[in-house]
Amino acid sequence: MRPTIKDVAKMANVSIATVSLVLNNNQRISKETRKKVNKVIETLNYHPSRSARGLVSHKTGNLGFILTDNHFLKTEPFYTRVFLGTEFEARERNYYILLSTIAANFKKSDPLPRFILERNFDGIIIAGRVPDTFINILSNYDVPVVFVDYNPSLDEYANVLIDNIRGGVLATEHLISRGHKNIAFIGGESNHPSINERLQGYKTAIQNAKIKNNDNLIITNNEFLSRQNGYDCAEILFKKRRKVTAIFAANDSTAIGVLQYLKDNKYKVPEDVSLIGFDDVEADLLIDPPLTTVRVPKIEMGTEAVQLLINIINKKSIAAKKIIVPVKLIVRDSTSYIN
Fold first, then answer.
1. What are the tens digits of pLDDT across the range 190-212?
2. 35 burial type by CB count under 10 A (0-12 exposed, 13-18 middle, 19+ buried)
3. How many angstroms separate the CA atoms of 332 and 339, rounded?
């Protein structure tokens, strides 16, 4: 039969609360008592439950992880890697991650994730953009929240953000360095802060190179960043402008959709059109040609989010702290010098 905290307390001749204090490394417990309790724990091969640890700390040991359902797809693996980062770090910190999705068009009448309704969490990580309606409802719970890859423009929240502007500059400068001047930008939801910042980076690099701005080379809409939207935007682009020699796509899924359009319409990559993405997902190495991109440290973002959230929970960090993670240009075979 599996030993319980009561068994540990009885064998060590201490109270259950004392055992819980030892489990939570509380400094109120003497070294002698701590040593005695830990010896019993080892003898019984006792593994504490969350409820046992929470007797004194009044914490659940759970961290919520929330994203919209369209961000958690096989074809959109960015946030899957972020989630893995949170899982790895939470495991090291002896926390559990509770994953839940909400609708991209979340309404006030929609049900909240069950762990929120049950208040079975100590803090929440929100990955990617979520509706303001959800954020407003969540604010009523007065709990620590960390946003990853989304800044809701509310000063009270902590953020782990990508250096999107720098990434946009790196991507565009790479194409410029290969002699390209007719460089297009294809993005989906341009009102998303991350996408807007990548577009800012693109514009900055174009201006710095003293290349004439041409709004016809910028194709954005309010659609979710996806392969299909990349395909559709590329079709719009080439109907408007056929002299494009290079394309910066706002993320890799969009870039893969652009690549498919180019192939379907007999354009060779990179001989006719150079193509660069953003994120560096695993699929980039599997397509032909392998995709040049801007690498985002996705697992590290998840790790940073957990560390920041736990520090806020333990009052070791301010709630509104922002962390900007650096990006890196990864050059593969989808970009080349202009012919």
1. 778 889 999 999 999 999 999 98
2. exposed
3. 18
**How much helix, strand and coil, in percent to the nearest 5, is found in the chain?**
45, 20, 40
DSSP secondary structure letters along 55-66:
HHH----EEEEE
Q: What is the DSSP letter of 119?
A: T
* C-alpha span between 338 and 270 (Å, rounded): 9
* Token pair in block for residue 154: 């509310």
Contact 189, 222 (CB under 8 A): yes
Specify the pLDDT at position 50. 58
In one letter, which amino acid is 231?
Y
Domains of the chain are: 1-38 (1.10.260.40), 62-162+298-324 (3.40.50.2300), 164-296 (3.40.50.2300)
d(CA 312, CA 304): 12
- pLDDT tens-place string over residues 216-227: 899 998 777 888
Dump pLDDT digits (tens) for 122-180. Answer: 999 999 999 999 999 998 888 899 999 998 876 778 999 999 999 999 999 999 999 99
The predicted structure's pLDDT at residue 84: 95
Ramachandran angles phi, psi of 276, nearest 5°? -135, 145
- Whats the size of the chain, residue-wise? 339
Evaluate whether 76 touches 47 at the Cβ level (below 8 Å). Answer: no
Phi and psi based region of residue 322 (left: phi greater than 0; alpha: psi -120 to 50; beta: remaining): beta
The number of helices, as runs of H, and strands, as runs of E, in the chain is 12, 12
pLDDT at 189 over 80: no
Query: Cα dihedral angle (239, 240, 241, 246), rounded to 10 degrees?
Result: -80
pTM of the entire predicted model: 0.81
